[in-house]
Automatic annotation (TrEMBL):
Cell location: Endoplasmic reticulum membrane; Microsome membrane
Taxon lineage: Eukaryota, Fungi, Dikarya, Ascomycota, Saccharomycotina
Domain Cytochrome b5 heme-binding: 2-78
Record-linked InterPro entries: Cyt_B5-like_heme/steroid-bd, Cyt_B5-like_heme/steroid_sf, Cyt_B5_heme-BS, Cytochrome_b5
A GO CC term assigned to this protein in UniProt: endoplasmic reticulum membrane
Family: Belongs to the cytochrome b5 family.
Membrane topology of this protein: Single-pass membrane protein
GO molecular function, one term: metal ion binding
Protein's name according to its UniProt entry: Cytochrome b5
Domain of life the protein comes from: Eukaryota
BP term (GO), one: sterol biosynthetic process
Keyword Transport part of the UniProt annotation: yes
Entry-linked Pfam families: Cyt-b5
Annotated keywords: Electron transport, Endoplasmic reticulum, Heme, Iron, Membrane, Metal-binding, Microsome, Transmembrane, Transport
Amino acid sequence: MSKIFTFEEIEAHNTRDDLWMVIEGKVYDCTSFLDEHPGGEEVMIDCGGIDATGPFDDIGHSEDAREMLEPLLIGIIDPTSVAKNSSAAAS
């Protein structure tokens, strides 16, 4: 069973040393991937602690990129949790 996180928990993980993000309802710890990200770390840090589904989809990531997320998966977002600072709220 996957661990279930709230957006309040996710929002605390928004730094270079501790970077989580939500993509399509799944929670990823992307900290270890920062140095490998082809688009640079800044874009990932900007998406830290939020629902990054919009920015992730807007870039048009490949199927290979989506597969690279799999080992970073740490849980899912609580569907009743509401994001204060998400890509959806910003648009």
